[in-house]
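EI: anyone free to look at a 165-residue chain?
SC: sure, send it
EI:
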Amino acid sequence: MGKAWVFESSIDTDMLAPGPYMKFGIDEIARHCLEAVDPGFASQVQPGDVVIGPRNFGLGSSREQAPAALRHLGVAAVLAPSFSGLFYRNAINVGQLVLECPEAASIRTGDDIEVDATNGLVRNNTTGAVIGCAPVPPHLLTMINAGGLLPWLEQRIARGELQTR
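SC: here you go
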């Protein structure tokens, strides 16, 4: 997929979507994503790159802009040993792939990473290592691939699978 960006210290939603920028749209919020821990992240991350985080990634407030900022920047996946429950659900809702990966700390900044969300596997093409993650349930992967909860629902309505009032 892409290059690994490793963050070893606690990452909360305020670091992902800083409070002073919350009055702006996602373009501006994303420009400041993770600037408190890596000022160059938002300008250097490339579509397809993968964020590697510590335990309880995304703790803090329930702001959906936190995973939305990562998705807006093109982050293909976020891997961490665990996620804050609110962040995890918000990530799914906005179409950001997140995988619980106990061995995520074995990945180093700059490693070339390939993620198989269906089977819960991460291949480190730099080292040759393959590590396991919790596979994403098929119904959630379908939602993520659709772009999140709202696009998924819109697609189901358009196909006649759901009825509106």
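EI: The mean pLDDT is 96.
SC: 👍
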